[in-house]
Specification:
9 helices; alpha+beta; seven-stranded mixed sheet; globular; Aminopeptidase
Length: 218
């Protein structure tokens, strides 16, 4: 899509970045894993995400500085989180878990352990040293116009220039998310791994039956 301008997000973009994270987590459904696992109403979820973003801890999607934004006419119309997995940080799963445990408090974190164990059935390991693409979001008025592909290509070019040793990019998606399938395929990604579960208990928490790991060489 022509006419887009790209830049890294800052805390001034916190509202848009929080929306991107939450909407990407919903994956086209009416709820997020966070809401179901931690018994959070939507307003509490947003407050949680915003509080974590303010900490500016790198290594996962929960950091404004990890977001690349696409702007049209000066306003954000899309965004993706990017980072190099486990580069100078623990794995992103550990970074995210530590942040959530701190923000939610010990009691709520302990209460969620059985549900977190259910989610582990569809965990897909990320490759250390690979560029991660997460929380892919485009505002409804700009969907279908190639914004997702344009942001991903910009992020990959940025990575090539800064860290030419990185060899591949990865994205995780929910199996049933067809718009994501189409967008990631058009961006040159192919499915490298699929993990699914038929557990009815998992279905009450997760917006699908499992995850897909997408990869492309960069």
């Amino acid at each position: 899509m022509s006419g887009l301008v790209f830049r890294r997000a800052t805390l001034a973009d916190l509202d848009f970045v929080a929306t991107a994270i939450i909407e990407a987590e919903r994956s086209g459904t009416g709820h997020t894993v966070y809401e179901r696992v931690f018994d959070l109403p939507p307003d509490a979820l947003r407050a949680l995400v915003e509080s974590l973003l303010r900490e500016e801890i790198p290594g996962s999607e929960l950091c404004c500085d990890n977001f690349v934004l696409a702007l049209a006419d000066g306003a954000p119309v899309g965004g993706i989180a990017t980072w190099i997995e486990a580069q100078g940080n623990p794995p992103s799963s550990i970074v995210r878990a530590n942040m959530l445990a701190w923000a939610l408090g010990a009691e709520r974190w302990r209460a969620a352990q059985s549900r977190l164990q259910l989610l582990a059935a569809v965990d897909v390991p990320r490759a250390a040293g690979a560029l991660q693409v997460e929380s892919v979001y485009v505002v409804p008025s700009h969907r279908g116009g190639g914004v997702t592909r344009a942001i991903i290509e910009h992020a990959i070019a940025e990575c090539r220039a800064a860290q030419p040793e990185v060899e591949k990019a990865q994205i995780l998606s929910v199996v049933e998310n067809e718009p994501s399938r189409r967008a990631f395929s058009r961006a040159g990604f192919t499915i490298a791994r699929r993990i699914q579960s038929e557990s009815p208990e998992l279905a009450a928490l997760f917006p699908g039956t499992g995850r897909l790991l997408w990869e492309r060489s960069i």
